[in-house]
Amino acid sequence: MSTTAISDEKIPNNVNLAGDRKLQRALEAWQPNFVSWWKEMGPYGFQTDDVYLRTAISVESDGWAHFNYVKMPDYRWGIFLAPAVADRTIGFGDNFGEPVWQQVPGEHRNTLRRLIVTQGDTEPASVEQQRMLGHTCPSVYDLRNLFQVNVEEGRHLWAMVYLLHSYFGRDGREEAEALLMRRSGDRDTPRILGAFNEPCTDWLSFFMFTFFTDRDGKFQLLALAESAFDPLSRTTRFMLTEEAHHMFVGETGVGRIVERTAELMEKNKVTHPDDVRKLGAIDLPTMQRYLNLWYSLSLDLFGGEISSNAASFFATGLKGRAKEDKYEDHRALDGTYAIDVVKDGAIATEQVPLRNAMNEILRDEYVADCQRGLDKWNRQLAAHNVEFKFELPNRRFHRHIGIYSDINADPSGKLISAADFAQRREDWLPSEKDKEYIRSLMQHPIFDPKQMANWISAPKQGIKGRPVDFEYVRRGEG
Ligand SMILES: [Fe+2]
Ligand SMILES: [Fe+2]
């Protein structure tokens, strides 16, 4: 058996779990709790359906997945690490060039555990946020994609729980339990990060979430893939292969709504949002407002612009920059980074030591990646002769974390008063009326594989060579 193939044990894995009885027993004890959580908080009302899902069967970059019908509670969640890189050395920070760690150094134990718990907490949180969406699905194709994202977020939780159980002793086991106890949006036991407590109860939000919020996940994983703690690096590297599909769901989901709206606008020669709504489509200003919301919530997930925590994560080798290889200076001790700060009610540029700006550097990469998606949607609009352009709001807009959290800015970044912000809020962020309209479009699910909701265009192709109208979900009994 190759070291990357996945075993057929109770818990599928490629980490030779059978060779560590104690760990195996601990994880086998956690497994039923996970399944209870899934049944309670996973997709509501679809647990007996047969869903055409991909399951990891190897961690090789080609052909790692297998597609077949499976009932979600029977999904083969497991523990998969990307292959070890021989003689891997630390790629950045004070210990640059030294061998990576196979165990957690005592002095970094608490910080590393916190990083892993914070990442792990987002995984079940998103499943909880999305658990009712199946009942308003625009097509069976989309329903299947939702469930694919959900089961893989469940597996990402497994990935983090494996690290907690293997390397953090009793504290780790307690954290693993707590990951199943918190609930997205719960007043008393919320999930750790803000965006993961926001309701995500309509499909426009879902596609924006998978585009913007899952993309934060991608960049956090890229930064953790650089970690000196090798097991964390290996597990996040494999998670990234799954994450790519979540990004695809978001980008093409929004893209298909854009396509449908643009097509209807062109055909019916309408431009006014009210006229677009009369056609049962989602008008572009409303999409822009949803975009503003999910983008700004996701920007917060990168943390403070000027951060001594980020500096120490980098110094110690816990968390690097995305694709550290492309940088020349891996110690980042000398440079500075220009950050716009707010001083006496005005914007002033401050030079910040490079290491303290690591959150902002990661955020820059994220912003550029988001922009690429918007450019694509804007090209679709142009192709239909629609004069509208989606824009990313300035990063000072609608922030709750970091140096812009106590100021108010318009989408262009101009500082304004709280009163002005409140007055213009509904121009920039989804209003109750917007949400009501979006809900009105999504009253019923579409379970006939031949049908597609009116407000979204059909995808160009199906999953894994299957036709778009393939029966991706077979509804179970009751
Ligand atoms: Fe994830
Ligand atoms: Fe994801």
TrEMBL record:
GO MF annotation, one: oxidoreductase activity
Protein keywords: Oxidoreductase
Repeat in keyword set: no
EC numbers, comma separated: 1.14.13.208
NCBIfam families: benzo_boxB
Name of the protein described by the UniProt record: Benzoyl-CoA 2,3-epoxidase subunit BoxB
Record organism: Pendulispora brunnea
Designated gene of the protein: boxB
